[in-house]
């Protein structure tokens, strides 16, 4: 009798264990067969792509010129193109400014690299060149011809052109000095470019804003220069935006 009861109990326990095991296996099976919860894929990549798109500049400005553009004697971050970019960003414009200046370059030399600079496809170009021609006494007709060609080709490439006017002292004579200063507005009108009458307005002849050579601005001088040309650049930006 005791043996029968122990067998009964053993069988009962075994049955209950089997039932529990079946329930456990069923639960596991249900868990495995249940569809996975949707997980957002590539969320981080998407966010990075959006950030990259937001960071891409809306427009590109090419500052094309000589040492005055390159920033001779100052840190690259203190050059006028670098300061102009920061000034535009602080004003809410998402614009990249490329420094395309080469120290010592004449208008003839500038023409030799024009094709390469056109490949940057700038929306706006600030042309500042001719000063080294005057320092070398280059024939004014050649300087005028070169500057005309530079502005023409940038304009035909679709860029809004801003012509940066320069002035020189009368060491080459009154006639040369007048012809030099006059070629900038003449060429700007011919190609309907924006004219900055004098790039160094408020900077030239100020010993506090110029380096010892009295030709190139200091970092502070470039800051003054950027504030002076800023309204003309904004005019160019607005024109470029209308063309888009």
Question: What does the model show?
Answer:
This protein has 244 residues and is of the alpha/beta class. It has a single domain (59-243), classed as Rossmann fold (3-Layer(aba) Sandwich). 56% of the residues lie in helices and 11% in strands. It has ten helices and five strands; from the N terminus they run H-H-E-H-H-E-H-H-E-H-H-E-H-E-H. It has helices at residues 2-33, 43-55, 67-70, 80-90, 107-112, 114-118, 131-136, 140-156, 174-190, 219-243; strands spanning 59-65, 95-101, 124-128, 160-164, 194-196. Strands 2-1-3-4-5 form a five-stranded parallel beta sheet, with helices on both faces. Strand 4, helix 9 (174-190) and strand 5 (194-196) form a beta-alpha-beta unit. The longest helix is centred in the first third of the chain and has 32 residues, at 2-33. The model is unreliable at 1-36 (pLDDT under 50).
Structural descriptors:
single chain, 244 residues, alpha/beta, Rossmann fold, 10 helices, 5 strands, 56% helix, globular, disordered N terminus
Uncertain stretches: 1-36
The helix/strand class is: alpha/beta
The figure for the number of domains is 1
- Global morphology: globular
The CATH H-level homologous superfamily: SGNH hydrolase
Secondary structure tally, helices: 10
* Spatial separation of the terminal alpha carbons: 101 Å
**Biggest pleated sheet:** 5 strands, parallel
Secondary structure elements and pairings:
Layout: H1 2-33, H2 43-55, E1 59-65, H3 67-70, H4 80-90, E2 95-101, H5 107-112, H6 114-118, E3 124-128, H7 131-136, H8 140-156, E4 160-164, H9 174-190, E5 194-196, H10 219-243
Parallel strand pairs: 1-2, 1-3, 3-4, 4-5
